[in-house]
Design brief:
- There is one protein chain.
- The protein is mainly beta.
- The chain has no helices and eleven strands.
């Protein structure tokens, strides 16, 4: 019922920038928390940044002052502007969306994940 589409990954040099985008579509009543997680080979998935519907943001310490998360509620889209990229940022980045949907007149909250987009930062 809900589809999450990511884009924006790629290969950049140290110090470069990338902008990730993620759009949730489908029968969505509202989007709640949206965010980005990442997973490097051999590591667990970790939080990068989240943003609430009210615009309150939360960042991992490792990306503070370098990454900026934002959202467009009208488009159910979340962005991650990544600046001053480091090789340590290399990972698959996953979009996370918590959305409210209606099924048989019942409002429920669900978590959805994007397919992941590869970010590679060369040294």
């Amino acid at each position: 019922q809900v589809h999450v589409a990511e884009s924006g990954g790629g290969l950049v040099q140290t110090g470069g920038s990338l902008r990730l985008s993620c759009a949730a579509s489908g029968s969505i009543f509202s989007t709640n928390v949206m965010g980005w997680y990442r997973q490097a080979p051999g590591k667990e998935r970790e939080l990068v940044a989240t943003i609430t519907g009210a615009g309150i943001t939360n960042y991992a310490d490792s990306v503070k002052d370098r990454f900026t998360i934002s959202r467009d509620n009208a488009q159910n889209t979340v962005y991650l502007q990544m600046n001053s990229l480091k090789p340590e940022d290399t990972a698959v980045y996953y979009c996370y969306c918590n959305v409210d949907v209606y099924r048989f007149a019942l409002r429920s909250s669900y978590n959805y994940w994007g397919q992941g987009t590869q970010v590679t930062v060369s040294s």
